[in-house]
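Recap from last week: sequence in, structure out.
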Amino acid sequence: MKVVGKSLSELASLVGGRVVGDKNVEIQRVASIDEAAAGDITFLTSPRYQTYLQSCKASAIIIGNHVTVPSHGKNNFLLVDQPYLAFAKILDVLTPKPHFDCQISPDSSIGDSAVLGENVTVFPHVYVGQGVKVGRGTVLFPSVFLGDGVVVGEDCILYPQVTVREGCRLGHRVMLHAGVVIGSDGFGFAEEGGARRKIPQVGTVEVGDDVEIGANTTVDRATLGRTIIGRGAKIDNLVQIAHNVVVGENSVIVAQAGIAGSTRIGKEVIVAGQVGIVNHIEIGDRARIGPQSGIAQSVPPGAVLSGAIVAAPHKDWIKVMVLLPRLPKLWNTVRHLERKFTQLSRKVGKRVTTHDGC
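Predicted structure tokens:
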């Protein structure tokens, strides 16, 4: 898995940057700015870290066009508009790629009616059910389970202990990290005589192209119809997505967020860590929701919301929630009364002074 080094000018062409210094210096690795050595390239995203430039031993440093290039001339620089994006592209080029043998392990279980495309790799202890279709170049790590009728697209990677339940579909270039469960039953029960009767969950899950889902995240199948994860969505570890949820294209959902059933999340939305979203609402395109926020009603497109609430006795919490939207008006009222009080105090003071002077 050896990677051939690249000249700094080659990397500049890759990321659309400009070289200041030796454009022919060879770059072999990517490293952090405090650990980089000769042959490494590192990056600087903020001017407040410029002090590291004095001691940095990297062969080249990626910096933004807004960062001042030091005049001492001992470092080589790659100037770009987006240093973090350039870093990601260069890291992808210089990182050794894993090699898979495109073999099907005899210790796996493959259904008679399953269809596996060219160059599929199946590790030991994988289970592939009846009627499953797996696209070209896909890799199934040990203990992956694909239920009957599952469809997996091309060039997907399913890491150990991923479960894709019956009838669910994955697009192309999908990456599911260890322990992901796609198509577990939605949480649906009807009360009957004090007991809970399970509502059969007979829908499916559809995951679009270029989706990545983090470890131990669960995406529940729809009660009826489909739970949908749109193309390009990125979902972190330990996220719960309930039945019939729709996640729009290129949205981001961060760790420990929970999305209740039948909620629709628009395109390019960012949901931060530990956000809780109730069922049957809509989050508009490009909305931003800060960490630990509780979302109890629909959010318009482009809105930016935040605000974690500390746990309190339920009755007190209800009162606070009722008062919270009124706080700006209450604040303005208090300021108005303060000004009035100050004016009245000054008038009373003048009257007392005049009386004493008589």
